[in-house]
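Handout, section B. The chain below has 440 residues.
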Amino acid sequence: MAGKMTVDEALSRGGSGRFQWRLLGIFGLVWAADAMQVIAVGFAAPSIAVSFGVERVTALQIGTVFFLGMFVGAFAFGRIADRIGRRSVLFGTVAMDAIFGLASVWAGDFTWLLVLRFLTGVAVGGTLPVDYAMMAEFLPPKNRGRWLVWLEGFWAIGTIVIALTAWAASTWGAAATWRWVFFVAAAPAVVGFFLRFWVPESPMFLIRAGQQDRARAVIDRVLRVNGAAPLPSGTELTLAPIPEGAARSIFDGHLRRATIGMLAVWFLVSLSYYGVFVWVPGQLATEGFGFVRGYGFLVILALAQVPGYALAAWGVEAVGRRTTLLGFLLLSAAGCFMFTFAAGSAMIAAALIVMSFALLGTWGALYAFTPELYPTHLRGTGMGTASAMARAGGILAPTVLTFAFAQSFGFAIGVFAALLVVAALALLMVETETRNRGIG
């Protein structure tokens, strides 16, 4: 018998099957590409300094303008996606990523390189939050968090690829390692653009836009690909109604406290993560710490991220999003404190591995948790604003680096450890647990 059914209920009929695996592969490819674009800052800076005859501190300006572009893209495109749809925005941002990313490879002077990295940053900043919101809206409530951590896990793949690229280019004696790094970072976005034609619009967005027939067609396609029966004829798909007086902004009503807490976490985690990993590649590639040096150890640090994501994927479903995130924040802080007290190269190596493991597990839990805090009509905005706060942290990181490392390496990492403890305290403002909760 025909009746009403929420999108979450309809998706649950088909479970997580071939459709979601294909979606994970497509979104994951571009997610890895975006990771490469972000991480490329630390790997490319030493080579850029040599190519254009500038100081390494000046070369790191490519990171500042890139994160500034990401701030603009995240803030703007998340809101646009809530108004015109996820699919259209993703086509535009991935195309920009490919075009400006590839153009960066052939930049003839440092000024043009800065301009192109800013534009690439706008594209990447717009892609990241919308990707996540859209992936979340195609997943049934059961195990949604695990799938979202798996998507975030492609960040580790991108990091590994960039580390291997920089290592290979350096080993082969490439004249400009940074051109190889930027080329490899941009190439997946070219493939990802064409794969996006397979991805339909979010059914949750279509319902909110009053396009019931298109939403039903998308849901039936998901069910068909997963081998499930289509919806009964005449079924009306619905979203949970927006109650009278409900939040119309991410800062309204019951969302205000959670939003403030989560934005603080995003900012502080980003400031710490980029503060550490924009500096570490250049340091290890040149001076290092005894035997802890070179691109080979950077590959080890990248590989350490994989079990971090695996543990986060287990934790968000087994013990909950909030508890898992809190645990990884405290472990990240512990890794940073461990570095400040390290007495030898072996201890430094262990601390860096713990930091890499824990910080990327933190990101996995953070990305799984955040989109579930917001209703459909605010999800793109919520993720976009959170992502913009993260980019603000990335913009500020080089400034903090300059001040902190002027004191000492240990002092700098100690600052980031303290910031991660503050992030854990800010998370206490978020009292909601979203495990197994519908988002439609």
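Note. The beta strands are 4-6, 236-238. Compare this with the example in section A.
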